[in-house]
Each structure stands twice: as structure tokens, then as C-alpha cells.
Write a structure and sequence with these properties.
Layout lengths: L1 E4 L5 E6 L2 E4 L12 E4 L2 E5 L1 H20 L6 H13 L1 H4 L3 E3 L21 E5 L4 E6 L2 E3 L4 E13 L9 E12 L5 E7 L1 E5 L11 E11 L4 E7 L13 E8 L1 H9 L2
Antiparallel strand pairs: 1-2, 2-5, 3-4, 6-9, 7-8, 7-16, 8-10, 9-10, 10-11, 11-12, 11-13, 12-14, 13-14, 14-15, 15-16
Helix pairs in contact: 1-2
Amino acid sequence: MLHWKESSPAFSGFETGVEVLARWKRPPFGTDAGRVFAFPVTFYLLADKVGLLLHQLWHVERARKTAGEKDWTGLATLSEVVFQSGTAYRYRRGFEPNTSSVPHGSGISGFASFVPNYVSTNINAQGLEFGYRPTWHLSNTLAFTLNYVPLHLIQNTPSYRDRYYWAAGPVLHWKESSPAFSGFETGVEVLARWKRPPFGTDAGRVFAFPVTFYLLADKLRINVRLMPGNKTAVNDGGEVAVSVGLADLNGLIYWMFRK
């Protein structure tokens, strides 16, 4: 079978090829095998509706659990997590205030916007940051994101004012179809400390060029920041910073505490 993927969420793709159908009661390629060759054409529609169906299935199983009947709530939740974290993300369109695997139509997707999308730690130096990712989903493979880090915390700095930084910048995100390698993004950022005007004299700022990889259905985040001429406390003044952390943190909190 040859499968064509389409970019529309309503019309997800189609495939065609050749098949042979044969009955089990006779050798399939013997005399009078009862077989026929077929040329199927299959259309895949409404991929975005599968998430709604899985969400409704979870509601049904939760109702059965509440009523004391045998239920499959755990399996329904797992199915929805896998779908929303992997397949559904590729078919999203439009703007999300803080992207996550929280299903649309769940009733609390707006609340998830207030929880950071990721938290990561710098493995070169002692540093911690959490960030938000307002995202415009442009197609199945492309999204535009504005990374915003309200707090980049640095330990063991020479002065108190060098401890707290913020960061922001636009990046272009490529979505991948593999759950193991979910996607990557790159762009430009500015990091500046909070204690002085970020664009004033001696602002303690640096421009960075991030390259970020998302693995394991967007749950693992590996970020590399290139900071030419860095003279700030960020990354102890180094020009290459590597950080590792959890992504889709708002989605993970939703799935862990959903009842």
C-alpha cells in the first residue's frame, strides 16, 4: 500500500495498492482457491475528531467507575494520553496561549496556560529555568512559537542582581511524526537580568541562538544555546549552554491529577 499524507485535519490522507483475499478452508494458491485480487482506495478523514471520541470514552468509563461497575478508566486515559501527546499535536491549528497535550474541549485547557510548559536545568553550570510557549500551529509539520522565560535562576553568582534573568524570543518549530523524536526548533532569544533595565546601560544581557530537541512524545526537552560574546552570569559566562528538562509540564500535571 502507498499512503499519501495530507496537511488538512479534515482530510488526513489516502492510500491505494493491491490486496488478495482468500478463504481459509482451501490452500490459498491451490486449485479453486477461492481468492480474488482487489485494488483498494482508502480515505482517512477527521483525524482531529479522534481525540474527542477518546475523551468521551474516558467520560463513559469514569461514569462506570463512579457507579461501581467494572471499568477501563486507566486504559481510556492511557489511550488519550498517547494520542494527544503524539498524533493529535501534528493536526492542531491556530493559536494556543501555552501549548500542551491537554485535550481541546476538556474545559480546563485555558487553565493549563498558566502552568509553565517546561522546566529545565543547565548541565554546564548551576542554573534552573521555567518557560511558556505561546504557539501558532501553521501546518502538520510547522509551528511558530514565542518562547518566554519569566525566570532563569542562577546559583553562586558574584552578586545578588546576577541571580535572576528573563528570556524571550521567536522560534520556528518543526513537528516530527515519530513519538521518539517529536520535533525540534530554532530561532533567536535575548536573556537579560531583572535587576536592571534590560536594555539600559550595563543591562547584563546576551543574545542567544537556541536549538531545542523534543523527544518521547514532547516530554523530554534538550536545549543548546549558542551565546557569542557572552559576558553575563548566564552559563558562568560560557558561550555554549546545554540544558535538559521536562516539556509539556502543564499537560503532565493535567493527566496526573485528572480524576
